[in-house]
Specification:
With about 350 residues, the protein is of the alpha/beta class. It has 13 helices and nine strands. The chain has a nine-stranded mixed sheet with strand order 1-2-3-5-4-6-7-8-9, with helices on both faces. Helix 12 links the parallel strand 8 and strand 9.
Length: about 350
């Protein structure tokens, strides 16, 4: 007797995605409704990521020696983001800034396979780092400082100097601890996504303590997991005046449900029931948002660029309601999963310089 194949759980969840997904979708018809929706969705996203459980601590910034490089300086800094939780970062400062000038700031978030902040500041100390910088064009921290920005490049929890002990000694200097951290955090009401957003919020607090930084002109930019950090930070913290999301703007169904082997850092309890990435992007409106996508980026999913433009169309609705359609832009470059920057860098200049 020929047996009928038993439906898989994935098939069931694909159907459920369509049935219960996006319950707080953008449906505003005017500006007043949009503003109410933005406020409600921000509150919900803070709750499901666990941000509301985070604890404030004194920044207690520790500044290391300043290194003189070609046209800019680099300094290792360390701040407290929660009691007993420290975040190391590199501060890049252009040499030619007049004394007493407060410069615009870029928070440059790294993604996976980066060694944390090391790739973003262009370190090539190992063969692995050099390969990462060249393959992904990862040194966008240097690209920004050369354009006149103070650039802060932190280690996200689970990367670089913040790699969990369980991952040490595996021989992979570019590894991350996403699964380890999310496994521990979710049963305790927190998520790695929430931790990353919180830490960058604390980094903005640190910006306000620096005499060389203009805290009214802050941008955030990142590739891949860095784009993940940036879209969440900018959606939840309006102090970010301009955002660049590279290689991380797509529909969840194709890129995270069907492609369910992607990194666990992407998964937040009840997120897909609540909103899609296009809705999260709409929380930035009217602040400038730039999205760049590799035409051949496999993370776009099986439908390719369509999976990106569908989400972009959701985000654009908010900008159109506010009459600032030109504040959101999208570039598709002929490449795979990497930072491009050709249009993104001038975009940030337009709004901050």
């Amino acid at each position: 007797m020929k047996l009928t194949p038993v439906p898989t759980v994935e098939e069931y969840l694909l159907r459920r995605f369509d049935q219960v997904g996006r319950q707080m979708r953008l449906s505003a018809q005017n500006i007043a409704e949009l503003l109410v929706w933005q406020a409600r969705l921000r509150l919900r996203l803070r709750a499901i990521t666990g941000i509301d459980t985070m604890e404030l601590a004194e920044l207690d910034a520790d500044h290391g020696p300043i290194e003189q490089l070609d046209g800019y300086t680099r300094q290792r800094v360390e701040i407290s983001v929660e009691p007993g939780v420290r975040m190391p970062l590199f501060a890049l400062v252009p040499n030619d800034a007049p004394n007493g000038t407060r410069l615009p700031v870029v928070l440059a978030a790294h993604g996976h396979g980066s060694g944390g902040k090391s790739s973003v500041v262009g370190l090539r100390d190992t063969v692995e780092l050099q390969a990462a910088v060249e393959q992904y064009h990862y040194d966008y921290g240097v690209q920004f400082v050369r354009r006149g920005y103070v650039v802060l490049c932190p280690d996200a929890r689970g990367f670089g100097e913040r790699l969990e002990r369980t991952m040490l000694g595996n021989g992979d200097s570019l590894a991350g601890s996403c699964q380890v951290i999310n496994n521990m955090a979710i049963p305790l009401g927190q998520t790695l996504t929430g931790m990353w957003a919180w830490d960058l919020m604390r980094l903005i607090d640190y910006v306000g303590t620096r005499a060389d930084c203009d805290s009214t002109r802050i941008a955030a930019a990142g590739l891949s997991g860095g784009g993940h950090q940036v879209i969440w930070l900018a959606a939840l913290d309006e102090r970010v005046r301009c955002a660049v999301v590279s290689g991380y703007f797509y529909g969840y169904k194709d890129s995270l449900l069907r492609m369910n082997q992607n990194c666990s850092c992407n998964y937040v309890p009840a997120l897909w029931q609540t909103a899609y990435l296009g809705d999260i992007g709409a929380l930035l409106a009217p602040r400038p948002l730039f999205i760049e996508t590799g035409l051949h980026d496999p993370l776009n999913g099986e439908r390719g660029i369509v999976n990106v433009t569908e989400q972009l169309a959701i985000t654009q609705q908010a900008y159109e309601l506010l009459g600032v359609r030109d504040h959101v832009a999208h570039t598709v470059f002929d490449g795979e999963h990497r930072w491009d920057g050709v249009d993104a860098l001038p975009w940030v200049d337009r709004w901050l310089l």
